[in-house]
Design a protein that fits this description.
Pfam families: WbqC. This is WbqC family protein. This protein is an alpha/beta fold. The chain contains seven helices and seven strands, in the order βαβββαααβαβαβα.
């Protein structure tokens, strides 16, 4: 049983979904501090002038505010995002087909950032035929500090393998996982293939929607898993 644990991101890049695809259970861990100018409420799209941010405006009332406590600031934000996608991907071969899947997610009227992100993650997993079970960390009643909570999640989900992003190398104690019978593997984001984009130069570090709109049903082939 392979478990991975990450904060939710808005329409994440392909590496995020590569990690999900390699996992049996993916835990959305939004019980941590919300950080400004991060990937939680924004991501990049590809335009003819280079990458451009799409940002969900949110309220931040305190530095201790958790991601799951974060609410949107303006309820009409999604209209600007739909328009930006139409402007920059309207000529992509699979834009119309997959925008029909994504537009209802935009139009749900959700006001909580974690909920918005989770709906998009689930919808995109559906498009990519990724059947990984997705769990909200709050369902697990995690206890302890940063390391202990990861251990607690893996234990409660009966994991024998924990797949982690490389950023956790600065604090994660692999020996403690080994004592619990859990092997730690590190995600490698190198070696992604180039696909068709509407303009040059090619950019990997954009939302996975770029890949989906341009490659359609073949999008999964451009993940490393």
């Amino acid at each position: 049983m392979t478990v991975s644990i990450l904060q939710s991101n808005y329409i994440p890049w392909k590496g995020y979904f590569d990690l999900i695809a390699r996992s049996d259970v993916f835990v959305i861990y939004d019980e941590v501090q919300y950080t400004k100018n991060d990937w939680r409420n924004r991501n990049k799209i590809k335009t003819s002038n280079g990458p451009q941010w799409l940002t969900i405006p949110v309220k931040q009332s305190s530095l201790d505010q958790k991601i799951y406590e974060t609410e949107v600031l303006k309820t009409n934000w999604y209209k600007k995002h739909i328009n930006a996608l139409q402007t920059n991907y309207g000529k992509a071969p699979y834009f119309k087909q997959y925008m029909e899947v994504l537009k209802p997610v935009y139009e749900r009227g959700e006001t909580n950032l974690s909920t918005i992100n989770k709906h998009f993650i689930e919808a995109i997993c559906g498009i990519l035929n990724i059947n990984t079970r997705i769990v909200d960390s709050r369902e697990l009643d995690l206890q302890g500090g940063r390391q202990e909570r990861l251990e607690d999640a893996c234990t409660k989900l009966k994991a024998d393998r924990y797949l982690s992003g490389s950023a956790a190398k600065s604090y994660l104690d692999e020996q403690r996982f080994a004592e619990l019978g859990i092997a730690v593997d590190w995600m490698n984001y190198d070696g992604y293939k180039v696909y068709n984009q509407l303009s040059l130069p090619f950019v990997h570090e954009v939302t996975i929607l770029d890949l989906i709109f341009n490659e359609g049903e073949k999008a999964r082939e451009f993940l490393n898993y």
